[in-house]
Amino acid sequence: MEVREKKSEREAQKIVQKDRSKRVKDARQEAQREIEDYRKQKEEEFKKFEKEHSSGNQRAEEDARQDADAQMQAIKGCGDKSGDKVVQDLLRVVTDVRPEVPDRVKAPP
Questions:
Q1: Total Cβ atoms within 10 A of residue 86
Q2: DSSP H or E segment with residue 100
Q3: CB proximity list for 107: less than 8 A, separation 6 or greater
Q4: Three-class secondary structure assignment of the chain
Q5: What is the tens place of the pLDDT at every residue in 23-67?
Q6: Which terminus of the chain is more exposed, N or C, with fewer CB under 10 A?
Q7: What's the pLDDT band for 106 if we cut at 50, 70, 90?
Q8: Rounded to whole angstroms, how far apart are CA atoms 17 and 40?
């Protein structure tokens, strides 16, 4: 009889162990589903936040681009207006060499 009882106990332990394993596996799967749902929810919140706040950046970028374009036009206008004179002055200074002795250098005795 003892052999039967031990065998029955072992079978009962196996059944209990299988049940525990199944419950643990089910709990893991449920936790994984909850994690995925939470991740999806947070991603949607982030995308919504990003969409709401990125439009301000786009406006700032467009304003900066327009400002830079206006400044470039002003610089080009100055260059067109006095560019020839600047080139002529540079050429005159480079080609008309007038060596001078610096004040720090003493004249020979």
A1: 11
A2: none
A3: 101
A4: CHHHHHHHHHHHHHHHHHHHHHHHHHHHHHHHHHHHHHHHHHHHHHHHHHHHHHHHHHHHHHHHHHHHHHHHHHHHHHHHHHHHHHHHHHHHHHHCCCCCCCCCCCCCC
A5: 999 999 999 999 999 999 999 999 988 887 776 677 788 889 999
A6: C
A7: confident
A8: 35
